[in-house]
Amino acid sequence: MEKSQINRAEGLPFVSVIIPCRNEDNYIGSVLQNMQDQDYPKNRFEIFVVDGQSTDKTVEIIERWVADSSRIYFLKNEEKIVSHALNKGIRKSKGEVIMRIDAHSVYPSNYISKLVEKLFELKADNIGGSWLILPSNNSLEAHLIAESTSNLFGIGNSYYRLNINKVKKVDTVPFGCYKREVFDRIGFFDTELVRNQDDEFNARLINAGGTIYLVPQVRITYYAREKLGRMISMFYQYGLYKPLVNLKLGKPATLRQFFPLVFTLFMLSLFMLPFIHEIVFSFALYILVIYFILGMLFSVKTVWEKKNIVYLFLLPLMFFIIHLSYGTGYLAGIIKFLLLRKKIKAVGINR
């Protein structure tokens, strides 16, 4: 880290860490311990935990940590939406660097120091690490979810989910480590967005001439959803709010978002094609077979690593569910927000 780039009269940049959470009693204590164990000077960062009306023991755990530490602060997020939590934390904070982290993850001890170093070294506006996606428990269901959501075929070129090894300019990173001046320049997180608030903010940042970098050497251990139903809900909501993000930006943030929509429209067409032309229907079925064969090819590495042939058949099914969930949500978002112009119903998300 070049001293001329980041030294201030008072020392290293002061960092404000913001943790939005809701019903994370299994993880919130661990992530706060992660922050306590950081190698960044203890007098150079503060932590805001912003709780979205948890109904489990999350608040009780947070309050214990607050009582034991002078730099951990507890804020209430009555709206239960992540963007509200982030904005509340940013407004209360005093850091020159704003770092948003997730309660459902584990962070290395150099997480703050390394990202702050690279933030100034690369002259970036936002920077983040890569995900090591692990199952939430040892069930086959949890393993399938973790494997499918870290596979190129399952999630496209979301680089932070993939195993790349070079620092790379990207369109988004998980969570984000921002220079505070970014919020002065382009505003705060959009509170209309229940999901995709990071994507919209980062696209707005890039449109304003900002830069975002992925530093894959900083590895975040992220625990995937433990149940198939929660994974489906997550991808459906990701898709649902994408058209609204595009509407706000005036253009699509990325091209990869359209594949699940096209795939969903293709699947819907299969119900109509038999009534249109038998040959066209047969051709469409061949395309579907090719899709599943590709899914199997992208599953071979997991089969080899897990030494379990079952992944060869179940992972392609998981890819199908991910694409259909996201695409169905996207289609619903087009109908609701673009065609019917419905207002957002501000309801928070339970993880």
What's this entry about, in short?
With 351 residues, the protein is of the alpha/beta class. Helix content is 49%, strand content 15%. It has 15 helices and 9 strands.
The largest sheet, given as strand count, sense and whether it forms a barrel, is: 9 strands, mixed
Helix-strand pattern: HEHEHEHEEHEHHEEHHEHHHHHH
Gyration radius (Cα, Å) is 21 Å
Which structural class fits the helix and strand makeup?
alpha/beta
- Unreliable residue stretches: 1-9, 346-351
The averaged pLDDT comes out at: 86
Protein architecture, described:
It is a single chain. By secondary structure, this protein is of the alpha/beta class. Helix content is 49%, strand content 15%. It has helices at 3-6, 28-36, 58-68, 82-92, 111-121, 140-148, 152-155, 181-186, 197-207, 228-249, 258-269, 273-276, 278-297, 300-306, 310-339; strands at 15-21, 45-51, 72-76, 97-100, 105-106, 126-134, 168-169, 177-179, 212-223. Strands 1, 2, 3, 4, 5, 6, 7, 8 and 9 form a nine-stranded mixed β-sheet that branches. The longest helix is centred in the C-terminal third of the chain and has 30 residues, at 310-339. The two termini are 37 Å apart. The model is unreliable at 1-9 and 346-351 (pLDDT under 50).
